[in-house]
């Protein structure tokens, strides 16, 4: 038997990627035979309500779970981390194996995180297999004590319906016109305040949290769209991956996090068939260079030279290279491949196999 447990915020209603990544994982897993057990988390409700909801879903899962099943759990667990060890113990009573899909490592992402990286690794060591974003994340976690088996997810998928895919495929091929898209929660993207200093490049911003009165000659707010509509709305030559509070370098907690994280917006740009621009030291930058689907930079001030030296045929080659990747991302191919590897790993391990070493109250 194959099952999945997904926790999601039930009362989030804004036009950001939000729960798109976790929902897409859930849909892909359902497609390949994993029965879904959703656990809604209410950010504005009591802790007791969320714990009760989790326990009810766990009991339901445990009741229906067959012996020697495989259960996929998406991480982080949205405020109920301390019950992870209990969850895994319940699974092991029925000699079942657990696979973790990492979406974020909060201790790397947030400067004011309530727990450390070592605490997160203790949690991750509860699982039989952990799916990391990339080798950079895998190596960092292993250096800090991750002992469980790992697989690489490569990039996040971004499911699109057939109509959206056809609209994107019908777009005429145009020469680059110095236009760069940036999508996300704009209120948290502090570097945007200085974009007017980047000359000879026009920025199209998509998402909530931006005051239209702050538009500049080279900065245009194009509106806020839900995650399903956004891919067909993006109108630019490139999609930008950047974070932190500086346009000079990708620094700070959020900027440094890109060394280990594959941002979901990269997948948005890929399904939109926009070549990508990303920090040279980022993990996604390695993927961009290896697949020749964009350019990497150290500073946003380099964008002027990027366009000055970008040959039309090179840009068209990037667009062409994106076609196959876009098709894989929009159909869930990367997660299917990662789950196949993870499932093979847990099935080859002996019954009762357990490699992790939980040892604290944060388990």
Description:
This protein folds into two domains: 2-157 and 333-348, Glycogen Phosphorylase B (Rossmann fold); 162-331, Glycogen Phosphorylase B (Rossmann fold). Helix content is 38%, strand content 16%. The protein is built from 14 helices and twelve strands. The strands form two sheets. Strands 2-1-3-4-5-6 form a six-stranded parallel beta sheet, sandwiched between helices. Strands 9-8-7-10-11-12 form a six-stranded parallel beta sheet, with helices on one face. Helix 6 links the parallel strand 5 and strand 6. It is globular, with a radius of gyration of 21 Å.
Helix and strand topology:
Elements (H helix, E strand, L loop, with lengths): L1 E8 L10 H12 L3 E7 L5 H18 L5 E6 L8 H10 L3 E6 L3 H4 L7 H8 L4 E4 L2 H9 L5 E4 L9 H8 L9 E5 L18 E5 L12 E3 L8 H4 L4 E3 L11 H6 L6 H8 L4 E4 L3 H9 L2 E4 L5 H6 L3 H20 L1 H16 L15
Question: Could you write a compact summary of the structure shown?
Answer:
The protein has 363 residues and is α/β, with parallel strands linked by helices.
Give the CA-CA distance, first to last residue: 26 Å
CATH class of the largest domain: Alpha Beta
Helix content: 25-40%
CATH level 4 superfamily of the largest domain = Glycogen Phosphorylase B
Strand content: 15-25%
Average pLDDT: 90
Keywords, please?
single chain; 363 residues; alpha/beta; Rossmann fold; 6-stranded parallel sheet; 38% helix; 16% strand; disordered C terminus
């Amino acid at each position: 038997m194959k099952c999945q447990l997904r926790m999601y915020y039930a009362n989030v209603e804004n036009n950001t990627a939000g729960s798109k990544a976790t929902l897409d994982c859930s849909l892909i897993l359902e497609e390949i035979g994993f029965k879904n057990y959703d656990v809604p988390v209410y950010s504005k409700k009591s802790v007791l309500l969320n714990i009760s909801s989790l326990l009810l879903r766990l009991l339901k899962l445990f009741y229906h779970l067959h012996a020697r099943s495989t259960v996929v759990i998406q991480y982080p667990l949205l405020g109920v981390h301390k019950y992870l060890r209990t969850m895994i113990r319940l699974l092991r009573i029925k000699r079942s194996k657990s696979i973790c899909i990492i979406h974020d490592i909060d201790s790397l992402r947030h400067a004011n995180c309530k727990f450390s990286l070592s605490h997160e690794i203790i949690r991750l060591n509860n699982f039989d297999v952990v799916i990391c974003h990339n080798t950079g994340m895998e190596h960092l976690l292993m250096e800090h004590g991750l002992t469980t088996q790992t697989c690489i997810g490569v990039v996040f998928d971004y499911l699109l319906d057939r109509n959206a895919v056809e609209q994107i495929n019908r777009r005429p091929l145009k020469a680059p016109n110095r236009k760069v898209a940036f999508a996300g929660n704009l209120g948290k993207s502090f570097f945007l305040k200085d974009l007017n200093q980047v000359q000879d490049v026009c920025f199209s911003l998509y998402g909530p949290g931006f005051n239209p009165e702050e538009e500049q000659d080279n900065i245009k707010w194009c509106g806020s769209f839900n995650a399903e509509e956004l891919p067909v709305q993006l109108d630019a030559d490139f999609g930008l991956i950047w974070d932190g509070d500086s346009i000079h370098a990708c620094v700070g907690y959020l900027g440094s996090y890109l060394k280990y994280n594959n941002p979901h917006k990269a997948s948005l740009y890929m399904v939109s068939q926009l070549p990508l621009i990303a920090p040279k030291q980022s993990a996604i930058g390695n993927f961009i260079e290896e697949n020749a689907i964009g350019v990497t930079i150290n500073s946003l001030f380099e964008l002027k030279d990027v366009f000055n030296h970008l040959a039309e045929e090179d840009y068209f080659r990037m667009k062409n290279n994106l076609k196959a990747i876009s098709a894989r991302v929009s159909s869930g191919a990367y997660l299917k491949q990662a789950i196949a590897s993870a499932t093979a790993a847990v099935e080859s391990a002996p019954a009762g196999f357990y490699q992790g070493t939980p040892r604290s109250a944060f388990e």
